[in-house]
């Protein structure tokens, strides 16, 4: 099972800034469910509310209507890619330095966190968390003493860090947004009335009826102050290496990401699958909701009917009374349930967006077999994932990737299906626009940003001097 990463939202110059940020985070909840946070600036002080869990669990009317005052706000929802899932690692991360109140929210993952943190600690820095975001904060403060403006300090800090990052920074009365030189992670600029807004995905703009202006460019820094926007490049942009998993899986289908409409790209991937691996069958079906849109494309291209023969329970929350040990496969059944009359004796094409470990799909295929499916063919709108991701997706070891260790025919036998086809890398690139701008490292092992010796989600958890939490 893949896990999402973080979502960002920021707004400048709105009397309902906190409430707007709440809705912006709510629209992007799919990007992270571990923690949520909002900070505001009221012209005098910074205010914050952070907590573990979903957006609706962390904030209430008292927070949004009374406590989080101010016309500037930014928020963050987190799925951890560096640092454990703890309240101390919830973002935005706050720093108070003299008259400066600094808040940072980060989507992505740095690959030189360990080295930078060791250097900073050697020079006297004291850390409170195990997030790479705090490393960025310390670097900004360090360079603030050597430069004239906060923008220059941020630029110098960002020249030291390496990896994938889209960031929002609240520095007193300034709201600053920036992307890494390769543009790996998405961040969009919009406007609602006289207010500028930023979000990881444009679905957040739709909810607050904001106009989508454009995506931020690689290496760009956008500064909003006194209601005016300024833009600069803090470094020389590198070749674009946008995360193609945004289009395959992460982003909501109604979002525009990197200038691409996600729904249309997923349909195109499904159509490409039908061209690459046609098969005679009775119908096409997705495993909701991840395979829905590629399945539409496969059906339209192949001429086979699309059936929703697996029904999802949309009311399964984060917490659920766990079944007794003898209730096998309960976790599969509680989320998805097949329409039994559709399955018996049928030749079925299942369209999925990706396979990481394969255990979930195997359990679902087993259920279809028990109901009498005659043939099951699996088509995957993502190439085989053979390499770990170090830029913000939580499959950071080859051992957990089934395609890294087994051939497609072996995976098909493990899953209990007649055939399996992953979309080819050329086929995937033909399904998107701007074909030379994507990071494909998890498919081909060509990492566009040089890696370090010590990386991964827990790379700071065992660092000497860091106090670990015990249960």
Pick out the low-confidence regions. 462-471
Strand arrangement in the largest pleated sheet = 3-2-4-1-10-9-11
Total helices: the number is 17
Helix residue percentage = 25-40%
Q: Care to count the β-strands?
A: 23
Amino-to-carboxy terminus distance: 26 Å
Portion in strands: 25-35%
Largest sheet: 7 strands, antiparallel
Shape: globular
Q: Tell me the radius of gyration.
A: 23 Å
Q: What is the residue-mean pLDDT, rounded to a whole number?
A: 89
Structural class: alpha+beta
Enzyme class: transferase
Pfam families: GATase_7
Organism: Pseudodesulfovibrio sediminis
InterPro entries: GATase_2_dom (IPR017932), Ntn_hydrolases_N (IPR029055), PRTase-like (IPR029057), PRTase_dom (IPR000836), PurF (IPR005854), PurF_N (IPR035584)
Explained architecture:
It is a single chain. This protein is α+β, with helices and mostly antiparallel strands. About 30% of the residues lie in helices and about 25% in strands. Helix 4 (about 115-120) crosses helix 5 and helix 5 (about 130-145) crosses helix 6 (about 150-160). The chain is built from 17 helices and 23 strands. It has a 7-stranded antiparallel beta sheet. It has a 6-stranded antiparallel beta sheet with strand order 5-6-7-8-12-13, covered by helices on one side. Residues about 460-470 have low confidence and may be disordered. The chain is globular, with a radius of gyration of 23 Å.
Could you outline the blueprint of secondary structure elements for this entry?
Layout: E1 7-12, H1 17-27, E2 35-41, E3 46-52, H2 55-58, H3 61-67, E4 72-78, E5 93-97, E6 100-110, H4 113-122, H5 132-144, H6 150-160, E7 163-171, E8 174-179, E9 188-192, E10 195-199, H7 203-207, E11 211-215, E12 220-225, E13 228-233, E14 242-243, H8 245-250, E15 256-257, E16 260-261, H9 262-276, E17 283-286, H10 292-302, E18 310-312, H11 330-335, E19 336-338, H12 340-343, E20 347-352, H13 359-370, E21 375-380, H14 402-405, H15 408-415, E22 419-422, H16 425-430, E23 438-439, H17 441-444
Parallel strand pairs: 14-23, 17-20, 20-21, 21-22
Antiparallel strand pairs: 1-4, 1-10, 2-3, 2-4, 5-6, 6-7, 7-8, 8-12, 9-10, 9-11, 12-13, 15-16, 18-19
